[in-house]
Amino acid sequence: MNIGDEISFVRYGRIPANGMSTNWATGEKEAGVSVYTEDCTVRGEFEERETVIRGIGTVIGFGSDDEPLIDARTIWSDDYAPEEELYIDGYQWDGIIQ
């Protein structure tokens, strides 16, 4: 998998409103939305989350655990409709492209 690839993913938990996941070890924001690929093993604590989003998105980097980071503006999913306005790079984005 490389930056720029479009991948199928699973996200446990809501998409962050700013389009950036948080590295829980350091508290720093990551470059995109942290996801699992469809074929990976998911840690148990994530499987129990109420919100599960399956979709397709474009890889823009890799997180601290080497997981793919997706550009929130590229997410396509029937499971996801933003519950709040997203602001990415200071610009309002009104949700998923379908």
Write the layout of secondary structure elements.
Blueprint: E1 6-12, E2 33-34, E3 36-37, H1 44-47, E4 52-62, E5 68-70, E6 86-88, E7 91-93
Antiparallel strand pairs: 1-3, 1-4, 2-5, 4-5, 6-7
Explain what you see:
This protein has 98 residues and is mainly β. The chain has one domain (6-93). Helices cover 4% and strands 32% of the residues. It is built from one helix and seven strands. The protein has one helix spanning 44-47; strands at 6-12, 33-34, 36-37, 52-62, 68-70, 86-88, 91-93. It has a five-stranded antiparallel beta sheet with strand order 2-5-4-1-3, with no helix packed on it. Strand 6 (86-88) and strand 7 form a beta hairpin. The longest helix has 4 residues, at 44-47. Mean pLDDT is 77; it is low at 93-98.
Structural class: mainly beta
Q: How far apart, in Å, are the first and last alpha carbons?
A: 24 Å
Secondary-structure element order, as H and E?
EEEHEEEE
Average pLDDT number: 77
State the assembly state of the protein chains: single chain
Share of β-strand residues: 25-35%
Q: State Rg.
A: 12 Å
Measured as a percent range, the helix fraction is under 10%
**Outline:** globular
Uncertain regions spanning at least 5 consecutive residues: 93-98
Number of strands: 7
Count every helix, treating DSSP H or I runs of 4 or more residues as helices.
1
Number of domains: 1
Largest sheet: 5 strands, antiparallel
| Main sheet strand line-up | 2-5-4-1-3
Give the structure's gist in a few sentences:
The chain has 98 residues and is mainly β. The chain has one helix spanning 44-47, and strands spanning 6-12, 33-34, 36-37, 52-62, 68-70, 86-88, 91-93. The strands form two sheets. It has a five-stranded antiparallel sheet, with no helix packed on it.
